[in-house]
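Design a sequence for this backbone.
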């Protein structure tokens, strides 16, 4: 973890603020890797690695939560670190956070100051089987709201027929905003 702290303190221009400076180092029992590398590393299937993981690091980046979406879609509990601790940046909201989804129930949300304790925090949560099971249930319940039904194969599309998808979620949020301004 000391190597991570040194890396986060290093001044590298744009990279100093990219993802609020959150980077990863190997820690026994942890394999923190980006899930969106292009091209993927040789001899590694990132989707399989993500599906086999309990937690997936999802620091802020240039998108609005693609790492978090990828983690949720593959059944991995997102570890969201989107606060640099300075108060200079507002917290980044995830998709439909607030009006439709309670990200605190399905993810682990940490601040920059929590990074040195990341392994112990995640080990404690992993040891709490009831809390871990609750996060997994919330993850499964939230997934349909993050998927675009029309982008899915026919079989998966049918499985979502009775559930609101991302399009329905956008429409609900917009209707809520319209009603709030009246």
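Sequence:
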């Amino acid at each position: 973890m000391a190597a991570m702290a040194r890396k986060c303190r290093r001044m590298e221009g744009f990279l100093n603020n990219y993802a609020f400076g959150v980077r990863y180092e190997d820690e026994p029992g942890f394999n923190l890797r980006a899930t969106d590398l292009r091209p993927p590393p040789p001899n590694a299937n990132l989707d399989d690695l993500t599906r086999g993981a309990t937690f997936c690091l999802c620091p802020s980046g240039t998108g609005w939560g693609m790492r978090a979406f990828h983690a949720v879609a593959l059944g991995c509990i997102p570890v969201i670190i989107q606060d640099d601790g300075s108060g200079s940046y507002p917290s980044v909201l995830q998709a439909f956070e607030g009006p439709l989804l309670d990200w605190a129930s399905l993810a682990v949300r940490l601040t920059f100051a929590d990074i040195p304790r990341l392994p112990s925090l995640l080990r404690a949560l992993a040891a709490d089987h009831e809390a871990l099971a609750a996060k997994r249930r919330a993850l499964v319940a939230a997934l349909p709201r993050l998927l675009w039904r029309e982008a899915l194969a026919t079989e998966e599309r049918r499985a979502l027929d009775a559930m609101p998808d991302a399009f329905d979620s956008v429409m609900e949020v917009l209707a809520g905003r319209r009603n709030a301004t009246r």
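The chain has nine helices and three strands.
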